[in-house]
Write a structure and sequence with these properties.
- This protein is an alpha/beta fold and 335 residues long.
- It has 2 domains: 62 residues, Phospho-2-dehydro-3-deoxyheptonate aldolase, domain 1 (Alpha-Beta Plaits); 253 residues, Alpha-Beta Barrel (TIM Barrel), CATH 3.20.20.70.
- Helices cover 35% and strands 18% of the residues.
- The strands form 3 sheets. It has an 8-stranded parallel beta barrel, surrounded by 7 helices.
- Helix 10 packs parallel to helix 11.
- The longest helix is centred in the C-terminal third of the chain and has 19 residues.
- The two termini are 41 Å apart.
- Bound molecules: phosphoenolpyruvate (PEP) and manganese (II) ion.
- Phosphoenolpyruvate (PEP) binds next to loops.
Length: 335
């Protein structure tokens, strides 16, 4: 951290600030310019409140040098994280595909889709049991019944499951039954939920909030990682912008940015990222080319009849084509 003082700062004011800071164990390097004094601080500045420093009228500005997140960042963890989940590796140079319907609707539906996506090479079955719908009048998911159906699909196909948790009430059930616990965009900053889910041993997939910056996402990641238990992956799923041609703006530049700032695997969800089934295929390929560690794709056997997000769901047929193409794109991008 660097504290820039106003030219009017008096000697006694600077001395008293220095005394306060060194009393907190910080090492201070003073840089004296023609009209400005700067105090460079080395040491753990996390306990310093920017607000209270700015209360001194002789402090002009504060520059933060280190990131506001630690556990998700590369500074203390330079090598990429690879997560071992149900016999699969997420990150570490591989490519992981999670596919399935937006929501679990019936045993027949989830089984049919699970079989199809497995056949095409998906690594995980996705499917919402608890759905965060904008309208309270829309289908809200089958709840615990949906979780039971996912378990049946897992048993019959061998595909591990990823599904979204919305409430602290179900942390135990998810820890017991689910392979990856998804935190949805709307809960990215539900801090109590992040902390509790982080205390399970279960891998977590954290989606980017609807209007969240990358730094906010990485701070949310630190909440999950605080307990030091749950392995974590991040998911770019589009953000709100002024653009209305798509449901969200899929921020693919977030992939290399996240890779630069963080050691965590990055998954891209082009289904929620675009909102239209015909945009999923090209953006999935673009995500692979951009260096994503995997994809989360909504697949439905009858998109027109889907109870949720049918307009952005691709058919098993198109999913199969995508799976074949994505490997080629990855190979070309890594060439
Ligand atoms: C989902 O994956 O079903 C979902 C609701 O996604 P998001 O939280 O990204 O909107
Ligand atoms: Mn959906």
């Amino acid at each position: 951290m660097i504290i820039i003082l106003r030219p009017t700062a008096e000697e006694w004011q600077v001395a008293s600030l220095r005394e306060d800071l060194s009393g907190r164990g910080l090492v201070i390097q003073e840089i004296v310019g023609e009209s400005t004094i700067m105090l460079g601080l080395a040491g753990d500045t996390s306990m310093l409140s920017e607000d209270s420093l700015m209360r001194h009228e002789f402090v002009e500005r504060i520059l933060k040098v280190s990131e506001p997140y630690k556990l998700a960042g590369r500074r203390f963890h330079p090598q990429d994280s690879a997560l071992e989940i149900a016999g699969r590796t997420v990150g570490g140079g591989g490519f992981t595909v999670m596919a399935g319907p937006c929501s679990v609707e019936s045993e027949e539906q989830i089984l049919s889709i699970a079989r199809d996506v497995k056949e095409s090479g998906a690594d995980f079955l996705r499917g919402g049991a608890f759905k965060p719908r904008s309208s309270p009048y829309s289908f809200q998911g089958l709840g615990l019944g949906g979780l039971e159906l996912l378990k049946i699909a897992k048993e019959k196909t061998g595909l591990p499951i990823v599904t979204e948790i919305m409430s602290l009430d179900y942390v135990d059930a998810f820890e017991r039954d689910v392979d990856i616990i998804q935190i949805g965009a709307r809960n990215m900053q539900n801090f109590p939920l992040l902390r509790e889910v982080g205390k399970t041993n279960k891998p977590v997939l954290l989606k980017r909030g609807l209007s969240s910056t990358i730094d906010e996402m990485l701070q949310a990641a630190d909440y999950v990682l605080t307990a030091g238990k749950s392995p974590l992956m991040l998911c770019e799923r589009g953000i709100r912008t002024f653009e209305t041609a798509t449901r969200n703006t899929l921020d693919l530049s977030a992939v290399p940015v996240l890779k630069k700032k963080s050691h965590l695997p990055v998954i891209v969800d082009p289904s929620h990222g675009t909102g239209y089934w015909d945009l999923v295929y090209p953006m999935a390929l673009a995500a692979a080319a951009a260096g994503a560690d995997g994809l989360m794709i909504e697949v439905h056997n009858q998109p027109a009849k889907a109870l949720c997000d049918g307009q952005q769901s691709i058919t098993p047929f198109l999913f199969e084509r995508l799976m074949r193409k994505v490997e080629k794109v990855r190979a070309a991008a890594m060439d």
